[in-house]
Every structure is written in C-alpha cells, then in structure tokens.
Amino acid sequence: MGVSLTARQLVELLVDPGSHLDWDEPADTEPADAEYRASLARARRRTGLDEAVLTGTGRIGGQTVALIASEFGFLGGSIGVATAERITRAVERATAERLPVVALPVSGGTRMQEGSAAFLCMLRITAAVQAHRAAGIPYLTYLRNPTMGGVFASWGTLGQLVFAEPGARLGFLGPRVYEELRGVELPADVQRAETLADRGLVDAVVAPEELREVLRRSLSVLTRVAPAGGPGEPLGSDEPDGPARPGGSGGSGGSGERPDAWEAVRRTRRPDRPGIRELLRRTAEELVLLDVPGGRDGALVRALAVLEGRPVLVVGQQRQAGDRERPFTAADLRAVRRTAGLAEQLGMPLVTVVDTAGAELSAQAELDGIAVEIAHCLTTLLSLRTPVLSVLLGQGSGGGALALLPADRVLAAGNAWLAPLPPEGASAIVHRDGAHAAELARAQGIGAYDLAAVGLVDVVVPELPDAAEEPAAFCERLGRAVGVALGELSRLSAAERSAARALRHRRLGDAIAP
C-alpha cells in the first residue's frame, strides 16, 4: 500500500475538532551542501512544511495529548538533526507537562545527507522517550507505511502500546538495500505489519479511520493508572454476593457445594461455556483488544481494560476458537511475558485468565522451546512488581495452565480444575488406558475447592450449576469478585505484596486435600 494520509490529515482525523495546537518553531536548517539545500527547498514547497515532522497538542476524546507526526512527503520522512531536535523537545515538553505522547512515525530512516550526525540523534530521541516512560506517562506509537531503519529501531517501537497501519512495511533494513547487499529480493511479507503482529511485535493492526477510537479507549484506561509510588484508592471493596472463601459456603444461591470432579471437567469442555472474550465483553467498562500470535483465532487474548473501575492489563487463554480447541504455544507464552512486562512498566495490575486444554505437544513445540518459555513465564510472574490476579476460568491442563497461575490472589470458577494432565492422560499413565479418567479426576484433588484447600485458590465463584447455563449472571459474579480482589491488592504496599507472594508460594501444596 502507498502512503495515504499526510501528517496534517492524520492529526485532523484523530483530534477533537479545533483542539490542535502547534508547538513547532520555524526550522532554520541551511546546509552548506548546495544539492541538499535545494532538496530541502523543494520539500518545503511541495509539503508546505519546514521539516519532516509536526509536533503539538490536541485532544482525543477530551484527553489532551502531545502529538508527533512524521511527513513522508518531506524527504521520505527522514530524520536529520533538526528533525530529531524537534522530536526530542516535544517529548521533553510532554514529560514536563505530564502529557501522554501519541507518536505517528512514517519514515525511511536516517537522513543520508547528514550521515552519522543524524544517525546518532536516534540516541537523543530515545533518551527523551525513556525519561518520559520512566515518569510513568503513556507513550503510544502508530507505525505508518513505511517505517524503517533507525526510526523503527528506536522511538517508533518504544511505545508501551505499538499500533500499526494495515499492510504497512515495517522493518530495519530497506528492501533496496537488502537486494543490493544480498542479490535477492526480500520477501514482501517479512516486513508486513500483520506479520509482526502475529509474532507479538506489534500490539494491534488498526486502520487510520479506526485509530481515534482505539486511542481514546487506550488513553481512557491508561490515564486512570495511579501515579507511581503508591496504591490507588480502593474501589468496590464490598464483598459481592456469590464468591466463597476457601472452606466456606457460597453466597446468595448457596452453591458453595463441591461439584463432582468428573462432572466439572465435562462442564468446562462445553463449547458454549463462557471464555475470556465473553467475560471481558460482559464485564469491561473500557476494552482494547490487542493482537496476539496466530491472530484472532489463536489461543491467547491480550487486552487493556477497565474492570470494576480499575485499569488493568489482561492476558489469558481462549480454549475454544471456532469449532476446536487451540493449544497454547511458545509464542503465546512469550506474549504473556511481554504483557507482564508492560503491566510492570505502566504500574498496572495484571489479570491472567486460565482456560486451556494444554500446551502444544509437538516436535515443533519442542524446537520452539515451550518448556523453557513456561519456566520463564513462572519466574516473570513471580517477580513482577505490580499486583497479579489470576482467574482459573475453566480447564487448567498441564504446564500451559501453570505458567499463568503465579499470582497474589487466585479466583476460580466453581467447575474449574487444574491437573498435570487431562484425566484421560493421567489414566493412560496409571492404568495404561483412558477408561479410569473419571475415577482419577475424583481422586487427584483437581477441583476448585480442592485447590482452595491446598492454598492455590483464594475465592471460589460458584456456578449454578454450570456457567454455560447462566453466562450473564456468572460473568457478573466473577467480575465483582475480580473487583474485590483488585481492591484488596491495592491496599498493600509493594513490599507487603512481595513478602506475601513469597510466603504464599513457599507453602503451596502443604495442606492435604480432603
């Protein structure tokens, strides 16, 4: 695809009418080289701009943001020293005024006419962006077609959320340079936005006409985050009806009774059972779904959301996609770790949702290092400095489930379960056939109330008797329980939370399930 919108057109598309304010001072770049001087003059006449970037402020859904928009028509959006200085000053001013930054790069990379001087300015821009992020202020980027070279390798991809234009070419090495150096063409799909999204390098592919709403929702969540250094005000701290504490009975409706373990396994396998997507759709006040490995039909869901008044990052497993179950892959686990890192960077709670028939079992999965990725997920979540809440929503089979369970609190649906293998697999090991699956399910202590007895689950959210038969009511009960748990965690300091997390995991499994 070609470049479709100028910098000004895109800014006008995004901001509330009449809200744009220009920050730019006239550029006075007059290089000694006559040919370069003439190129600048032509670019200025053609675009009506004095440099390859516009900076300023505007409002998106009423939220004031700083805007940095590249203009590809000005020498391919290339970054010279004056361009870099304009970007750097804009980021620094946004940091001083505590404004979120929305960066809209489109560029061939460093301006070759200025050589190393321009190239080194990427460090200048990156330092300003890093200081902005360290201050806990949102920095969002939208990569347009094309975004290449040093821009892609610095401020273009440093967004806490990185969005991209459909079909955009995004990469480090330009196709002409690749062909000159290697003698063959670079495959077209290697640097396509959708390819990068499938590999977890881009958070969402968004059409320009949809970008305003995605940014509005993202900023609505991100700007609710409490400033670094202390917990937010506890919201929704009243205990909801329904959830049961370990060893207790259920709330209204009275279904704190333990379901039969094998019957619970069968219920969690129903294709109409609410999954993470339905849970978020029914409970989130604001929701931005992010792209995941394998696209929308994959086994992972990542989202920025407001749940019970609290901004959170959500990552979880979508067991059922279409008419079949999706295995959890090594790429999914890498995306889990990236989401956890983003939660820590933004100072937001992380909510993990477990509902999986298991990790991918294949030769390719072994080559992809799935076991190593499970181990890294465990250590990442155990050491995360922000609150972690895990929801055992349904099936919890094997290491793919365990990877998302290290948390400060764990909620479980009444029929949810966790086991090293599905009961049929356990039966095959113990009895050399699958005929004893029901017997083993009942004997292994895999159900939600059994898991509460051994210290993993803190609250069981009852099903009356099956979430598939009451999806709206079940999601509402679970949503309220999430709000209560997040409220409890918000009242703990980071040191208190870390100490409690260490003690919790040290004692897991000590108790013997009845």
Textual characterization of the structure:
- The structure is a single chain.
- By secondary structure, the protein is α/β, with parallel strands linked by helices.
- Helix content is 40%, strand content 17%.
- The protein is built from 19 helices and 18 strands.
- It has helices at residues 7-14, 34-47, 81-96, 115-134, 149-152, 175-182, 193-198, 208-222, 261-268, 276-283, 330-346, 363-367, 370-383, 398-402, 423-431, 437-443, 448-453, 471-490, 494-507, and strands at 21-22, 53-60, 63-70, 101-104, 139-143, 147-148, 161-164, 170-171, 204-205, 284-290, 300-307, 310-317, 320-321, 324-325, 350-356, 388-396, 409-413, 459-461.
- The strands form 4 sheets. It has a 7-stranded mixed beta sheet with strand order 1-2-3-4-5-7-9, sandwiched between helices.
- The protein is elongated.
- The protein starts with 6 loop residues before the first helix and ends in a 7-residue tail after the last helix.
- The model is unreliable at 228-242 and 246-255 (pLDDT under 50).
